[in-house]
Amino acid sequence: MKQFLKLKGTVLPIDERQPTKGLMTTQIKVKNLLKIYLIDSEVNRDININRIPKIEKYIDTFESNLGIYFPAIMCNIQLKEFNYDEENSALTIYPNEKLVIIDGQHRITGLERYLSTMKESDIRKVKILDSMLTLQLYINLDKAEQRELFTSINSNAKKVSMSLTTSYDSRDILNILAKDILSISESLQSLGVETNKSRLARPKNKNLTSMTRLKTFLSLLLFGKPTLSNSNEQLIKENYDSVLNFLERLFYNLYSDLNSNSIFPREPGNVKKYVLGHEAVLNALAIYLNRKIVVAQNDGFLFHHDLDDFLETLTLIDWSVEDSSWKPFLQVAQRGQSTEFKTIDLKFQDAIAEYLTDVLS
């Protein structure tokens, strides 16, 4: 049978006693979702038509500087055959397999109604259809479990999510988080993450960071320290969806081809031009952001209520290696060679965090 599409992401077990059931966080193009979604009246309640005009009005702002942001669409798929490529973290979906919507039917209906008013040749319609939505995809839930999940989502202010599954997963939660945010964030992909090697050979390698460094960045960002305690790991597991959504929004603000207010320059991992490719600088940024926009509590995380506006303050920083502010931290590497560049030792990360605090206060 001809495959329809492949979804990239890590599949997590819902319950180790039921190996055919799982959950993955991924991204899907709007046009693909609209082709294979299904609203099941046995799972969902009726559409509230009064909510749709507000959603259409919001979608109409997608070309603004801030763009638009939809929370993850939550759905279930019944798979007779589990065609998952573990090496490439890719799940194959076939045309006859439908995504049954559990949460997000109003957003999808709003999208369909908005798009129906546009001509096929309208470039704005093409852009929307080719844009990505975050998808939380449950695998092989039965009808009763789908109804229970729908009820839980709509009866609690705090949405049920991947936290239902990560508590069953014994793997390194930071490793899972790093892989998932990389798989769904086009911004992070554009910034560049080295996945094949743990060491970044500068200046040739222009990726912003590596998977190993990304894990440290996430730990510093969420908790202000480079390694996690068992209780820290559990807090991430219990609040996985909110953490993932926060990270996606953060990286979108830091860099996006669609965001004219991006904080990072193009090719920020080019250490001959910018300081951002040095681990000390990224770690310092994570430490600073942890102090300003993240509060880890016993029952969850508090993220800055106006994240987009706050992050705009980072545009005050000149990330160029030629800026005199970086001179105290820079030292020459590979001196006298054609590959000579200026580097920053990891020991300066705390001092740089203080520098960022002073400049941005």
Low-pLDDT regions: 156-170
Number of domains: 2
Shape: globular
Q: Report helical residue fraction.
A: 25-40%
Overall average pLDDT: 87
Q: How do the helices and strands follow one another from N- to C-terminus?
A: EEEHEHEEEEHHEHHHHEEHHHHEEHEEH
> How far is the N terminus from the C terminus?
59 Å
> Biggest β-sheet: count, sense, barrel?
6 strands, mixed
Taking strands numbered 1, 2, ... along the chain, how are they ordered across the largest sheet? 2-3-9-5-8-4
Strand content: 15-25%
Oligomer status: single chain
Overall radius of gyration: 22 Å
What is the count of helical runs?
14
Structure description:
With 361 residues, the protein is α+β, with helices and mostly antiparallel strands. It folds into two domains: 5-166, no CATH class; 173-360, no CATH class. It is built from 14 helices and 15 strands. It has helices at 30-36, 52-59, 105-116, 123-130, 143-155, 163-166, 173-184, 186-191, 211-223, 230-238, 240-254, 279-293, 307-311, 349-360, and strands spanning 5-8, 11-13, 22-29, 37-38, 73-77, 84-85, 90-93, 99-103, 132-139, 193-194, 209-210, 294-297, 300-303, 330-333, 341-344. It has a six-stranded mixed sheet with strand order 2-3-9-5-8-4. A three-stranded antiparallel sheet has the order 1-7-6, with no helix packed on it. Helix 9 packs parallel to helix 12 (279-293) and helix 12 (279-293) crosses helix 14.
Features:
six-stranded mixed β-sheet, DGQHR-contain_dom, three-stranded antiparallel β-sheet, 2 domains, alpha+beta, 14 helices, 15 strands, 361 residues, DNA_S_mod_DndB, 39% helix, DNA sulfur modification protein DndB
